[in-house]
């Protein structure tokens, strides 16, 4: 009898231990599920944060003309419209003062950047605008032959006074006065090109034929 009670007691203890183990296991599983749920929420939150950050950067990379406040950029838009063109003018976060910077910002080849270089004629003191393909160096002697007089340096004040824009942002159109314009023949190799739009960080896309039409410029070899 005593032995039977002893065995019964051992069985009850075993059952209690199994019950406790089951309880502990259930608690542990619940903890794991809860922990996993929290980790998942944190993971989702991080992904959403990164997505919004990436989206905002991409969205802010280009701010279209409706959001622009620069009078110079607005002037370019109005000039394009007056000439019958509907090109979108875009303002970039980064500067496009150099051809390399502009090409990197818009994602094109440097050769597709139509850079504007203003010269000053020595005898008549007139502005001469050469629109050249990004990497091309302008052979000033060729331009001098075309205008039949030597070229002088056009400083920042002269450029602003004659065009109405700062160096690095001179567009093909919208100038304060009529300017003689020469267009690099190399630009005609491309289906689309990019030109400055009034400030060092504003640009617009156009076609070479559109550039010739809107500027009435002469297509020449500038190298």
Largest sheet: 9 strands, mixed
Distance between the termini: 117 Å
Task: Determine the structural class based on helices, strands and strand pairing.
Answer: alpha/beta
CATH hierarchy class name of the largest domain: Alpha Beta
This entry's quaternary arrangement is single chain
Which term fits the overall shape? globular
Q: Overall pLDDT, averaged?
A: 81
Q: How many structural domains does the protein architecture include?
A: 2
**Number of helices in the DSSP assignment:** 6
Number of strands: 9
Stretches where pLDDT falls below 50 for ≥5 residues?
1-11, 25-33, 55-68
CATH topology of the largest domain: YbaK protein
CATH architecture of the largest domain: Alpha-Beta Complex
Spell out the helices and strands N to C: HEHEHEEHEHEEEHE
CATH homologous superfamily designation of the largest domain: YbaK/aminoacyl-tRNA synthetase-associated domain
SSE layout:
Elements: H1 2-61, E1 62-64, H2 71-82, E2 89-92, H3 99-106, E3 113-121, E4 127-133, H4 140-147, E5 151-152, H5 156-163, E6 180-184, E7 193-196, E8 202-206, H6 208-215, E9 218-220
Parallel strand pairs: 3-7, 4-6, 6-9
Antiparallel strand pairs: 1-2, 2-8, 3-4, 3-5, 7-8
List the main descriptive attributes of the protein structure presented here.
223 residues; alpha/beta; YbaK protein; 2 domains; nine-stranded mixed beta sheet; 19% strand; globular; disordered N terminus
């Amino acid at each position: 009898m005593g032995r039977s009670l002893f065995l019964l007691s051992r069985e009850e203890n075993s059952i209690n231990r199994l019950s406790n183990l089951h309880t502990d296991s259930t608690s542990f599983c619940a903890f794991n599920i809860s922990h996993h749920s929290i980790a998942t929420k944190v993971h989702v939150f991080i992904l959403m944060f990164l997505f919004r950050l990436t989206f905002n950067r991409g969205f802010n990379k280009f701010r279209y003309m409706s959001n622009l406040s620069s009078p110079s950029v607005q002037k370019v838009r109005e000039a394009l419209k007056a000439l019958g063109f509907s090109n979108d003018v875009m303002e970039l976060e980064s500067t496009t003062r150099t051809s390399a910077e502009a090409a990197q910002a818009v994602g094109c080849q440097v050769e597709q950047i139509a850079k504007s270089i203003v010269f000053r004629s020595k005898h008549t003191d007139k502005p001469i605008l050469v629109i050249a393909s990004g990497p091309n160096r302008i052979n000033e002697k060729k331009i001098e032959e075309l205008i039949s007089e030597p070229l002088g340096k056009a400083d920042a004040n002269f450029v602003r006074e004659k065009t109405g824009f700062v160096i690095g942002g001179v567009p093909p159109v919208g100038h304060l006065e009529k300017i003689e314009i020469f267009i690099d023949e190399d630009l005609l190799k491309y289906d689309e090109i990019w030109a400055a739009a009034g400030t060092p960080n504003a640009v617009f896309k156009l076609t070479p034929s559109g550039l010739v039409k809107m500027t009435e410029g002469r297509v020449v070899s500038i190298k």
